[in-house]
Amino acid sequence: MVMKAFVLLAIFAEASAKSCAPNKADVILVFCYPKTIITKIPECPYGWEVHQLALGGLCYNGVHEGGYYQFVIPDLSPKNKSYCGTQSEYKPPIYHFYNHIVSNDSTVIVKNQPVNYSFSCTYHSTYLVNQAAFDQRVATVHVKNGSMGTFESQLSLNFYTNAKFSIKKEAPFVLETSEIGSDLFAGVEAKGLSIRFKVVLNSCWATPSADFMYPLQWQLINKGCPTDETVLVHENGKDHRATFQFNAFRFQNIPKLSKVWLHCETFICDSEKLSCPVTCDKRKRLLRDQTGGVLVVELSLRSKHLCFPNG
Q1: Segments forming the whole domain that contains residue 182
Q2: Taking a C-beta distance cutoff of 8 angstroms, is the pair 173, 298 a contact?
Q3: More confident of the two residues 5 and 204
Q4: Domain count along the chain
Q5: What percent of the chain stands above pLDDT 90?
Q6: At a CB cut-off of 8 Å and minimum separation 6, what does 227 contact?
Q7: Residue 93, preceding peptide bond in cis (omega within 30° of 0)
Q8: Quick check: bond before 172 cis, omega within 30?
Q9: What is the CA radius of gyration of the chain?
Q10: Is the same domain home to 193 and 240?
Q11: Average pLDDT estimate for 51-77
């Protein structure tokens, strides 16, 4: 009786091993996230089991996931520079990451058609982030799935209380006209990206409208550097955050309640392939209290029939 039980178990195990019905659909799903790439293949492609498929021909890390074999590249900048054969290249303004999943059978006889699924993710390197410097947040954040990924969801333009850039101030905030000329502290921060990517400010400018192409503009940063001595760039291209400060101002000939919008064109720089830190010519800067002051937020300016110089 015991022998029969063993025979039945052996037959059941053999039947289970052959339960993979060949799927001949040449389909691959790719999800490109800011730090992770997930690839899915319909289970049992041409009769191959998940343990017979290798990411990059190196890693047998596939798992069953809802009718698919799923492979994950968890970090775009691992310590060994390449996760399971993942390769990357930069063709301005696009980053490309690519890999493949192949069948790899060590047995003497191969009974299934070999498979090789190639896939890639591309990411734009330049983004425009907006902040109602003195009104409300307008930056759209989202993650796009598919072969075109985006870093945009991880970027934010923030205001801070002082030059330590450790405490954020929520917009909107209000500045009285007596505070014109006081320091404002801002920065673009990237969260959740691989450490290889650094934030670089290409240019920042202010407008009295949410439209970043509004004809009336005040340039603060151009080609990564301050436009005058009232702007001080603290960090640019060295880390996951780029920071700067500038003097509060108002646009001339705007009604009593004036709103100022800040826009920054931001570049996500791959430090493994490019030199990211921005170096500017040394210029005479005004000495100022680096502890700054707590801002009240909107830069809606309340005028009491006062006259202001242009700018």
Answers
A1: 155-278+290-302
A2: yes
A3: 204
A4: 2
A5: 23
A6: 219, 220, 221
A7: yes
A8: yes
A9: 27
A10: yes
A11: 91
pLDDT band at 131 (very low <50, low <70, confident <90, very high): low
Show the tokens assigned to 244. 């700067």
Residues 164 and 271 in one domain: yes
Q: Assign 12 to helix, strand or coil.
A: helix
Would residue 135 count as lying in a domain?
no
First to last CA, the chain: 96
Phi, psi of 87, deg, nearest 5: -115, 155
Please write the tens of the pLDDT for every residue from 176-195: 666 778 888 999 988 878 88
CA 8 to CA 5: how far, in whole Å?
5
Amino acid residing at 226: P
Q: Which residue has the tokens 């991880």?
A: 154
**Residue 147 pLDDT exceeds 60:** no
d(CA 75, CA 199): 18
H helix or E strand, kind and range, residue 7: helix 2-17
pLDDT at 294: 21
- One-letter amino acid for residue 221 of the chain: I
State what percent of residues in the chain have pLDDT above 70. Answer: 69
Question: pLDDT by residue (tens digit) across 278-298?
Answer: 988 754 333 232 222 222 222
Phi, psi of 16, rounded to the nearest 5 degrees: -65, -35
- Parallel, antiparallel, or unpaired: how do β-strands 148-149 and 116-124 relate? parallel
Q: Which residues contact 185 (CB under 8 A, 6 or more apart)?
A: 159, 160, 161, 162, 163, 165, 243, 244, 245, 292, 295
